[in-house]
Amino acid sequence: MTTRVTVKTGSVLRAAEDGVVLFRYADGEDPPAFAMVAKALGPAFRQALKGCGFEGKPAHVALVHTMGRLPARVVVVAGLGPRESTTSERVRQAAARA
Questions:
Q1: Phi and psi at residue 40, in whole multiples of 5°?
Q2: Neighbour tally for 46: CB within 10 Å
Q3: Model confidence over 22-37: pLDDT tens digits?
Q4: Would you call 8 helix, strand, or coil by DSSP?
Q5: Tell me, what DSSP letter sits at residue 47?
Q6: Whole-structure pTM value
Q7: What residues pair up with 65 in beta bridges, in sequence order?
């Protein structure tokens, strides 16, 4: 089975693909795209992440269904670890896990 990956620019809130991938730091600082999705999905988004133990650490990945609140069916959130120790290699690894 092959997975087709498409990289696009634009608003994550209008992405009509099956899923979108977001990244989050472990220190709790929300990148802009993450904050926009969290606002659009409401408190249930953060509750779902908390419920599955997602803390933004490297190797943490969570899949959250949008329940029709966004055009994309799911949001995949990949952890990057602490912001100050994030490297391009860590971002590459997080993207590969997602």
A1: -65, -35
A2: 14
A3: 999 998 778 899 999 9
A4: coil
A5: H
A6: 0.88
A7: 74
